[in-house]
């Protein structure tokens, strides 16, 4: 009988009897003298210790320390409930193997942040932002607590319910809505609006109209409210999608929605039944709710010119009186927004695009042949859940089709749309994808890059540009200036922001404050940054609306299954000796140029080429890139490779069966439209950047063969043993590990040593290589400086260096790596001290990461 069970026995609701008999096993485990007089009342009151009269007999609790949560009794039917919530820090542990895990996961993704989702046990955490996001997609405080309680094995701790209440009390209660071209502050809680109207700044921005719709000055402190009896609706459909379903008879044609076999149907029903039994969601009740609708109260604020964030003076066609009007308008709506933030009632922004009659409609729809996938639909339903467009961020894995999600959103809103991407290559890809998936006419879609400055014809259209073009503060060319005036002088129905995690916050701020857009959607695969800038995104764009699970999409064949491995290459004694003596830059080159790594790279290329794979080798260091590629006789592309040469190499890689491997520098990360590959090898990478690692993995996730029986894509990182590179490698992998990828550590590529074709086999060759490395000049030692700033990597490194916590690995062996025979490998395991945990988790227990509430709570404890 475990200690938890003891507590359960002693604290279950039915059995509040303190006269509990301890059986022999229990006596033994507690080391309690049989005749000892036990006071177990402490178990019921949340104390962790079993107190024995006159002495503290606590031979187990010390093992759990602060983590002894036995004061939370297990529910009787805990086996069918899949989660547990830590009262200390709001982390939620979910049994990934539970029959209702999928449904529970949907709920958890809506209310919390996924921390780690490997195969069997998932970890989430409740944060103020995640709860803000939950409220913004329409979840109510009590519903969140109720469903958590039903899913939880133990009663939801009081600290957590308090936290949820505190975070959701004011969030999401107030919306800023553009309706019929007027701005309204809207809420279904009249008392909240009354409270806001008592605020002088807010009430001074209010507009009150008479019966003839003429503005009369708002009386100071007035609390008269407009009552809008029309339900804001809980129209759960996405307009664009509904249309498409009608056109095509639903989404069933998608390969995931193949008719289910009888067995599968029965299983699904069983799961739904079980979920229903646990969560007790009564569908009929839900429908009742929908029909009933809710009463929405609102008051109008000054915004007749429908002008929010942009600088009213920039526009060149505005007359002086208009400009003054705009300035006043802007000031009041900005003031009100800011004021609401200041008093902890942040306004959610929603765009009632169907009632916007000022901005011209854009003729755009999805093509009848376009079928969006279920997870794409799900993510969009979070954006358009109530028939308006909510601003926020959608997180989908690389290669999962974020572009189509953005395009579908644009087709739903049907207003002018500005798309911002990270590079001019992406700009061209977006344009091509708009033309491929939607009915947009070519003359309605324009691009704005350094090479091309187009405007669309007519009153509405799409412009695709880069962040740097729009946020550029330096002097612009005449054409660029005119184009900026065009962008800034008009109102955009929709601002689509690609790769939002990459953009520095100040650039972002410039963009969102100079472009007037009603709805903003950020897209990303990796919402990871180790600076505070992720938090900025919440308020600059909106909350995270949806985050998909990588493993789920891989299991359903939407992205490829990937085998990840880290190959440990021993340094030769000569290289290692130099490594220990040299400065840090040269050290980097030494561990990248290690002859054993060279050989491993060659061996893997040979191995995968014979399997019919297409291989990309990544090296951030250009010196190494060129040396490797030349020595192994493979084509390579780096920043200095001309456009024609790039195209020639990429075309060959794609279509020529004789060219199966290419070497790429950092340019491959963002600035090249890469053809499909099935195997990726990294020989040098950007320090500890988790984002770069995930992005590179993304290159092979879209492999077309992904649905072939037993198909795997391969992702290798080659690291030189006992060097700093191992440390960075571990750090880089953390994001992917948290998505459920298992990195195998291969210490020995069997058969490699006996391969007579390997390069640098002789001592002399190795010494010549070393000589070359030692003679390399300063420029050769640097990674290629290219493309967007990778602040994730840089900041990671700083923090990592400061912390200096080494990763631990434990050894196991196995014969094959998913078809790769003759390889011996090790596997990572998390050690008990949590040393191999992510930064987030690693610090989870420290007060540093605690929300103010938890700090308070912990302090009290
Ligand atoms: N619903 C769909 N039906 C068919 N193909 C799709 C669908 N959604 C996406 N794809 C295809 O999947 C591939 C990946 O899409 P896309 O480039 O938009 O992914 P992404 O999420 O933007 O990836 P990355 O983050 O790497 O840029 C593309 O070839 C795209 O055409």
Describe the protein.
With 861 residues, the protein is α/β, with parallel strands linked by helices. Helix content is 41%, strand content 16%. It starts with a helix and ends with a helix. Mean pLDDT is 71; it is low at 1-56, 218-257, 278-293, 304-332 and 786-861. The structure holds adenosine-5'-triphosphate. Belongs to the helicase family. RAD25/XPB subfamily. Keywords: ATP-binding, DNA damage, DNA repair, DNA-binding, Helicase, Hydrolase, Isomerase, Nucleotide-binding, Nucleus, Transcription, Transcription regulation.
In which range does the helix fraction lie?
40-55%
The coarse silhouette is globular
Distance between the termini: 29 Å
Number of strands: 30
Bound small molecules, by name, code or SMILES, are: adenosine-5'-triphosphate
Strand content: 15-25%
**What is the alpha-carbon Rg in Å?**
30 Å
Model regions low in confidence, pLDDT < 50 over at least 5 residues: 1-56, 218-257, 278-293, 304-332, 786-861
Number of helical segments with 4 or more residues = 35
Main sheet properties: 8 strands, mixed
Tell me the structural class.
alpha/beta
pLDDT averaged over residues: 71
């Amino acid at each position: 009988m475990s200690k938890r069970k003891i507590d359960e026995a002693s604290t279950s609701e039915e059995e509040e009897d303190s006269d509990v008999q301890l059986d022999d096993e229990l006596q033994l485990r507690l080391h309690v003298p049989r005749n000892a007089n036990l006071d177990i009342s402490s178990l019921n009151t949340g104390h962790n210790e079993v107190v024995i009269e006159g002495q503290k007999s606590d031979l187990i609790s010390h093992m759990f320390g602060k983590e002894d949560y036995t004061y939370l009794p297990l529910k009787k039917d805990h086996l069918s409930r899949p989660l547990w919530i830590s009262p200390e820090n709001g982390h939620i542990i979910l049994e990934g193997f539970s029959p209702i895990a999928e449904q529970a996961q949907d709920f958890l993704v809506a209310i919390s942040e996924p921390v780690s989702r490997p195969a069997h046990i998932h970890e989430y955490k409740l944060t103020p932002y995640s709860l803000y996001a939950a409220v913004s997609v329409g979840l109510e405080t009590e519903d969140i607590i109720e469903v958590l309680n039903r899913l939880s094995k133990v009663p939801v701790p009081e600290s957590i319910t308090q936290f949820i209440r505190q975070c959701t009390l004011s969030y999401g209660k107030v919306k800023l809505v553009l309706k019929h071209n007027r701005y309204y502050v809207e809420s279904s809680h009249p008392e909240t609006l009354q409270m806001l109207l008592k605020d002088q700044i807010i009430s001074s921005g209010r507009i009150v109209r008479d019966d003839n719709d003429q503005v009369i000055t708002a009386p100071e402190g007035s609390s008269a409210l407009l009552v809008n009896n029309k339900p804001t609706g809980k129209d759960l459909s996405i307009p664009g999608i509904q249309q498409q379903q009608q056109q095509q008879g639903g989404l069933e044609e998608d390969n995931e929605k193949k008719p289910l076999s009888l067995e599968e149907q029965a299983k699904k029903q069983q799961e739904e039944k079980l979920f229903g039994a646990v969560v007790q969601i009564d569908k009929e009740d839900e429908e009742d709710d929908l029909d009933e609708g809710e009463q929405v109260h609102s008051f109008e604020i000054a915004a007749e010119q429908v002008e929010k964030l942009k600088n009213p003076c920039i526009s060149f066609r505005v007359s002086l009186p208009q400009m003054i009007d705009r300035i006043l308008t802007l000031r009041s709506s900005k003031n009100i927004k800011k004021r609401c933030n200041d008093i902890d009632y942040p306004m959610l922004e929603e765009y009632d695009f169907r009632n916007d009659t000022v901005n011209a409609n854009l003729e755009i729809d999805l093509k009848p042949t376009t079928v969006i996938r279920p997870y794409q639909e799900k993510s969009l339903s979070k954006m358009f859940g109530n028939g308006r467009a909510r601003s926020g961020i959608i997180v989908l894995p690389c290669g999962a089709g974020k572009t189509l999600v953005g395009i579908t959103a644009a087709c739903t809103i049907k207003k002018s749309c500005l798309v911002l991407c990270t590079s001019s290559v992406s700009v061209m890809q977006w344009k091509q994808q708009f033309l491929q998936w939607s009915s947009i006419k070519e003359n309605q879609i324009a691009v704005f890059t350094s090479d091309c400055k187009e405007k669309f014809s007519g009153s509405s259209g799409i412009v695709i540009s880069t962040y740097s073009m729009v946020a550029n503060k330096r002097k612009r060319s005449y054409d660029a200036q005119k184009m900026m005036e065009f962008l800034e002088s008009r109102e955009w129905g929709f601002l689509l922001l690609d790769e939002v995690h990459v953009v520095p916050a100040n650039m972002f701020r410039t963009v969102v404050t100079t472009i007037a857009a009603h709805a903003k959607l950020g897209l990303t695969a990796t919402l990871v940054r180790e600076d505070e800038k992720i938090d900025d995104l919440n308020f600059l764009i909106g909350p995270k609306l949806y985050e998909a699970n990588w493993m789920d999409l891989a299991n359903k064949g939407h992205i490829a299954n990937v085998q990840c491995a880290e190959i440990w290459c021993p340094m030769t004694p000569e290289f290692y000796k130099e490594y220990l003596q040299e400065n840090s830059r040269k050290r980097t080159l030494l561990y990248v140029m290690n002859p054993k790594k060279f050989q491993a790279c060659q061996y893997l290329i040979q191995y995968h080429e014979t399997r019919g794979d297409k291989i990309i080798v990544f090296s951030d260091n250009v010196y190494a890139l060129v040396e490797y590629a030349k020595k192994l006789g493979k084509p390579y592309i780096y920043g200095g490779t001309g456009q024609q040469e790039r195209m020639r190499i990429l075309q060959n890689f794609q279509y020529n069966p004789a060219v199966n491997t290419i070497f790429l520098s950092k340019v491959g990360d963002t600035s090249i439209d890469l053809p499909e590959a099935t195997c990726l090898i990294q020989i040098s990478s950007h320090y500890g950047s988790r984002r770069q690692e995930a992005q590179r993995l993304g290159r092979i996730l879209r492999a077309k063969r992904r649905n072939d029986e037993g198909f795997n894509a391969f992702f290798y990182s080659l690291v030189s043993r006992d060097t700093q590179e191992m440390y960075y490698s571990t750090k880089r992998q953390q994001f992917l590990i948290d998505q459920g990828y298992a990195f195998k550590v291969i210490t020995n590529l069997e058969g490699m040593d006996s391969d007579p074709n390997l390069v640098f086999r002789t001592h002399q060759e190795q010494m010549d290589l070393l000589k070359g490395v030692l003679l390399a000049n300063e420029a050769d030692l640097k990674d290629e400086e290219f493309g967007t700033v990778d602040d994730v990597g840089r900041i990671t490194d700083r923090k990592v260096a400061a912390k200096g916590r080494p990763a631990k690995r434990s050894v196991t062996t196995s014969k094959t790596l998913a078809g790769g025979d003759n390889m011996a490998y090790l596997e990572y395991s998390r050690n008990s001290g949590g040393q191999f945990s992510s930064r987030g988790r690693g610090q989870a227990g420290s007060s540093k990461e605690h929300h103010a509430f938890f700090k308070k709570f912990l302090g009290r404890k």
